[in-house]
């Protein structure tokens, strides 16, 4: 038995290829939209991908299931416990899949979502009847459990939490302690509130150390824990669109050509089209020092999908501004993974070409804690951190809006005084400050160093 992990840190996502050395066949679980890594791995290992399955209909990214089926000739599987709009072979609780020496048993594990399934693997070459690995999807995470609140209001969340409690008591806790757990949602995912940094754990280790899991022995206490959503991270607006598209079946993208380099005239023409957004993916310091007027700032890197999916409107088309073009391919795929199209182009020569053309260059007002220390009474502080961060202290009188909430609540941010945008260290605040600036907030001020610098400088802090 061979199990290979494909880790995508920017989405806190792990997917898996399970292969049989006996039959030369493989199964892929929870593929991301760019499927070439699975095809490359299968070719390297001499496997034919036979099945592709999503553990659940994901809220945080578009699945590559149909892309991989089309390109590999595999068969799509799907949970028999959900409503799926695409052609598939349904799998249900207790069903086994024939993969040579690899025993694959389907477990219905609702809680995170109603249709959720996990896969319990055995290695027939070692111990045919002894479970070895749980591909848990979102049923059991490293140090955490996946959130049950993504599909509705309080009643739906309570129903999901009750199902989760049964899943844990009847399916997960009875598993032997030695069983390895490989989850789909890993550190960086917003599907949990405190996911550990490791990619793998064991059932026994989680029984002993997972604080939420340990409370499941008290059903009422577990429900209270699941229904206490105050410290869960806010999720970006694009999440609302992912589950329905995944359930309907995500259209394959085929061959993805890189966005073309655009000279100044072509860039201006694209920028002026309806629905086009200038997306600046340079470092926040570079953006603040000079950018194309009206541009949004989302630096390329580990949190790019979350913030691009926060500030970009649904259906937005983009033109990119980069430092040297090295980030273009990854940025293109990150946008495709969360439901946006390939960018229309990239500014040839970057900001150097823009500056030397004589075009207007906008800047983002920034400030250090030393510069705001003596004028706190004149500032409106907008704290865009996550709720769990607010518990560590906030600036007195601060307006608390997570970054995910800002796009839909722009009218709540005052325009008649300087708005000091703060986050943890100064990255997220630049993204939000650029969004405010692009939407006509004239007095936006970005605090460099964030609340870390604020507290280090001894500025006043109060409890949330």
Features:
464 residues; alpha/beta; Metallo-beta-lactamase, Chain A; Oxidized Rhodanese, domain 1; 3 domains; six-stranded mixed β-sheet; 16 helices; 22 strands; globular
Rounded Rg: 24 Å
Largest sheet: 6 strands, mixed
Number of E-type strands: 22
Q: Separation of termini?
A: 51 Å
Please state how the strands of the largest beta sheet are arranged side by side: 1-2-3-4-5-6
Helical residue percent? Answer: 25-40%
- Named at the architecture level, the CATH assignment of the largest domain is 4-Layer Sandwich
Structural classification: alpha/beta
For this structure, what is the CATH class of the largest domain? Alpha Beta
Please count the helical segments. 16
Q: Low-confidence parts, pLDDT < 50 over ≥5 residues?
A: none
Indicate how many domains the architecture comprises. Answer: 3
- The CATH superfamily of the largest domain is Ribonuclease Z/Hydroxyacylglutathione hydrolase-like
The average pLDDT score comes to 94
